[in-house]
Amino acid sequence: MSGTVLVTGASGQLGRELTRTQPAGTLVHALARADLDLQDSAAVARMIDRHRPSVIINAAAYTAVDRAETEARLAHAVNVTAVQALAEAALRCEARIIHVSTDFVFGGGSARPWRTDDATAPQSVYGRTKRDGESALLDTLGARALVMRTAWLYSAHGTNFVTTMLRLLRERESVSVVADQVGTPTWARTLATTIWAAVERPELGGIMHWTDAGVASWYDLAVAVSEDAAAAGLLPRVTTVLPITTEDYPTAATRPSYSVLDKTATLAALQVPTMHWRTALRQMLAEMADA
User: Fold this and answer.
1) C-beta separation of 236 from 244 below 8 A
2) What's the predicted TM-score (pTM) here?
């Protein structure tokens, strides 16, 4: 592609994979939190005016789901106010924004995968701020905004469910994990490559969904981490994982009980390959073992 791409949140798990998978010949300015304070609207405007990107990929977000219940103002500042500032700056330089959002914008009562046009009903502060950030972006940029919702994102870097499980499985004889919340684990690498495919399609706007293929509970994912990490040599043994209910493990924020996302429209538009979540997990664990 021609033009410049600006990536926010470059030090996060998705930002790292976006940098790692950037297409050859693409000029990318990857900005970590130290490079750009998204809570400083003036700094956001100056940075975008300086680089004049054709595309902005917003991979930055406040993602501490439980802490957001007591840090609602901070979550709103990063997930809504900063997104609005990015959109206004992008409007001035006629840039597109591809903005990463979440399955947490939905409730949990669906009996089928959530479609992009389903009504949102977030159950947590985090979910509400992500939903409001989507609205701010779409209202400001219209067709030049693309919201890419994903779910259960993990990578080899940072704090996420998989890295947390690896730590706990090393430390404990057994681990108890919720088995009645269902979604789709998604490797940040596959999301990154899908976002780059969307960068190449400037006509795309609105809302899309992307996750890896398949369905799992958190318990299923934890069992897979235990078995596959042991097979890869990252754990000394397969540790027992015990299924529990949401009631057995209360958290400050309410999680959706069912958050599988319908990817039909995304697959049709982008023609990108899909990978089953367990295949993706094994690939990532193998890379960690070889590092």
Assistant:
1) no
2) 0.96
CB 90 within 8 A of CB 48: yes
Which of the residues are catalytic? 126
- 273-282 pLDDT per residue, tens: 999 999 999 9
Structure tokens at 216: 């799992």
End-to-end CA distance of the chain: 31
* pLDDT tens track for 230-250: 999 999 999 999 999 999 999
Distance CA 164, CA 49 (A): 39
d(CA 67, CA 64): 5
Identity of residue 97: I
Instruction: Locate all alpha helices (DSSP H) within 172-262, ordered by sequence.
Output: 188-199, 218-231
34 DSSP 8-state letter: T
Closest CA to 195 of 59, 63, 32, 26: 59
Question: What DSSP character marks residue 80?
Answer: I
Confidence of residue 117 (pLDDT cuts 50, 70, 90): very high
Task: Say how far apart CA 98 and CA 14 lie, in whole Å.
Answer: 13
